[in-house]
Design goal:
mainly beta, single chain, elongated, 9 strands
Amino acid sequence: MNMKKIVLFCISILCFLPCSGQESLLPQGKVMASVGYGVIFLGMETFPVSVDVGVWDNGKKASLGAGLSIIPVYGSHVAGYQDGWITSKTTGSCITPQATFHFTLIKKWEIFAGAGAGLYYLKQTKLTTDTPDGTLVKPEVTHDYSFQVHAFAGTRLQFGNHFGLYIQADYPFVAHIGLSWRF
């Protein structure tokens, strides 16, 4: 496909989208619950859960939600070195109150972005062996508690009136895909 066709296609979409929005996908008083699977850029996995309640909408395309996001994380890593192995296991979670702006592009399809701040907890257990037979030398456990600022953006496609599929990228650490339920 040549560059001229790509540019014309993008311009036609940009002209079409602002005119075609339907009702807001999260009107005032409605609830949107989501659950997903994600990967953290450091190799850990996550199963994020979030709930948003519509607190404002303009009656057409835009709405604002307030809610809570819980992002549990899990990961393990094995590394070999000259005399043995290091096994590292990480678990933790981030609990964040958040505000989300929703904008309907076309019927049943929206983009959203938001931010929040909350508590982050991480526990790392490191098991080290110094011998080829795998004798455990010394387990090391560290705990990290911190306050995290959280920003995210994504898109959601609603199927019917209740169920949807979303994809989202979060700062500072995760990208995930999942299902949402509006009630």
